[in-house]
Amino acid sequence: MCTARESFSSICKRSCVTWTAMISGYAKKQGMDEALNLFNAMEAAGETPDLVTVLSMISGCGQTGALGLGKWIDAYATMNCLKHNVVVCNALIDMYAKCGSISDSRDVFNTMPSKTVVSWTTMIAGLALNGSFEEALNLFNRMIELEMKPNHITFLAILQACTHGGFLEKGWECFNMMTKVYKISPGLDHYSCMADLLGRKGKLKEALKFIQDMPVEPDAAIWSGLLSACKIHHNIEIGEYASQRLFEMEPYVSFPYVEMANIYASAGRWDGVARMRYMMRSNRIKKSPGQSFVEVNGKTCAFTVEDRGHFDRDLIYAVLDGLILQSKEEGSSQHSDGTQKFDLEISNIE
């Protein structure tokens, strides 16, 4: 971004395309504060942001969870007569859902002058993302009743709703509807949803057979989902099979080692735990630090696991220590099988 900004600054006469390219770059890199500064500077320079500029800002807000800024962009779109554009409305539905404000997504969806299959799909996906699984199913049924033809992405959204909602029968119904009624060939993501759904419901043997019988080659995500299900349902045998596939596909990714170590730990198989630790050390495997974003007083803040460089670190860790203490007092700091405790232990072997 530094090189891009230098090139941008060297341009004397900047067009709307030039400004938008720079704004979009910051938005994609989670630099929404700077994206907003450029957006305002663009207007101050007499250049009017166009549809692409606004869409870049909306997308960036969704990626970083910048709800306050997202609402501001929504108001800007309304004042500049952009809300009549179905693409803008679809983007706003998606942005609000990713920011956790599903009520705002509903408001945009319900007040749209016209809706496309993308509008319905985006709303269904947003409801699923925010845990409103039954509402997502009801909206899908309403879509079918209105003879709006779902596409492969619509079915992916509804299958994800079924997966996370635990609706096995409805999941099979939608999967069969896709293939038999709408003649849509399932992709890897659709198969992954069904395998994940079977695993979450504890039908691990059926899930494994489903994966083995798939007409497409299963990827690491499918095996990872099955391995996670094995951890939940304490199945060592299938867990070992799934983890072996992952060791072959992604030998330097920490996930299967940590998951198998926890499966072994929950069963008291300390020899297996030791083997996973040895394999991680031998391959010099480390867990990648997680990162999250939160909007605080209109400013988007990024947080990285074990990052002690934040200027408010003392206050942050004081609050976290208080939350951990409260969790321990309420008895929620450890699972009954001890797996959460082991997660902390294995993260320290590095």
UniProtKB/TrEMBL annotation:
Pfam families: E_motif, PPR, PPR_2. This is Pentacotripeptide-repeat region of PRORP domain-containing protein. PANTHER family: PENTATRICOPEPTIDE REPEAT-CONTAINING PROTEIN, TETRATRICOPEPTIDE-LIKE HELICAL DOMAIN, DYW DOMAIN PROTEIN-RELATED. One of its GO terms (biological process) is RNA modification. PPR repeats lie at residues 15-49, 85-115, 116-150. SUPFAM superfamilies: TPR-like. It comes from the Eukaryota. The lineage of its organism: Eukaryota, Viridiplantae, Streptophyta, Embryophyta, Tracheophyta. GO terms for molecular function: RNA binding. The keyword Cell cycle does not apply. Keywords: Repeat. InterPro entries: E_motif (IPR046848), PPR_At4g14850-like_plant (IPR046960), PPR_rpt (IPR002885), TPR-like_helical_dom_sf (IPR011990). The keyword Plastid does not apply.
